[in-house]
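Protocol step 4 of 6: structure prediction from sequence.
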Amino acid sequence: MAPRRSQRPSGPCPTRDKAKVEVGVLVVQRWLLARLRHHTFFSLEALNERIGELLEDINNRKMRLYEASRRELFERLDKPALRPLPAESFTYGEWTQVRVNIDYHVQVHHHWWSCTSVASHVRSDERGRHTTQPEHMPKAHQKHLEWTPSRLVHWAGTIGPNTQKLVESILRERPHPEMGYRSCLGILGLAKRYGNERLEAACTRALAVSARSFRHVDSILQNGLDRLAPPTDEVQPEPAAQTHENMRGGDYYH
């Protein structure tokens, strides 16, 4: 039995044609650089203007192999095959599967987005920030019912007064209280791992240094900073001025 031979598909070869294009770009690049190597330009506009003049020159030069210029070949072969641009610009999109959290936001590229069954947002690359449309809020939140924040504050109060203060601050400082649910639930959940006493101490320290997130409280507990004395706002006395025979003081220069 004769071995089977694979048949090469008809039509242009993408790899071969790609190489031709790259070689053509390289030729033009080298030709331009050779013509410009002894010139000095003092603005980008002047450089671009000169490059445009040289491109006109090279495009209108007749090539010996084809007995035609690049412009003539474009007008004869490429231009008739061109199609008009679409009436609308291309819309870029990415598709991914995510889980909706309790605060009706999903995380994509380190950014939080509010969502409904179908939602669209203007793209944002701000890490750790929220993009929220009020209409995406559940009906209970849209009516500003406070039972959910109150429940979180009450839960925090069973751990300690400073834990309660920290939760209240997080809910108050967010543009929408629901944006703080994730952080508050994370903080309150730390009591299962570290106990109420350590969590209360960590929240005390977080309030003293104006830290308002789960990440800060978790870091305090992981590094054992809750076991240290909390920082105070007391002004430390300045050390006494040193005296030495080589130290002249400010009066010496008057």
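Step 5 (inspection) to follow. The longest strand covers residues 105-108.
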